[in-house]
Amino acid sequence: MPSPCTDFSNFGFFGSAAAPKGGGRRMVTLTLIGNLVHCWSNNESLFIYILMLLMETDEATAAIVFATLNTTRARIDLIERLAMIKVGDKQV
After folding, report:
1. What's the sign of the alpha-carbon dihedral 57, 44, 67, 83?
2. Residues 6+ apart with CB under 8 A from 65
3. What are the E-state strand segments in 23-88?
4. Is the pLDDT of residue 18 over 90?
5. Which among 38, 32, 70, 65 has a CA at the least distance from the CA of 50?
6. Which H or E run includes 45?
7. Digit-coded pLDDT (tens) for 22-43
């Protein structure tokens, strides 16, 4: 009688049953994560341009200020604070 640790005859069932069901969901999940990463990197580059306009400076200086801040929360706080003092139209 084969040992349970070396009897791989039943593993074929798990592979054929689990892969097709989980494969589609896995691809959807990975695609969504990829889209999220792509969109977030675009948002961060837009934050640099917003900083550039609010600080009335060049792109390189805005990028340095942006990179100096450690967290997204700090970056958004800076943009919000600059907008409060720089933007005259309260509707914006």
Report:
1. positive
2. 51, 55, 78
3. none
4. no
5. 65
6. helix 11-55
7. 577 888 888 888 888 888 877 8
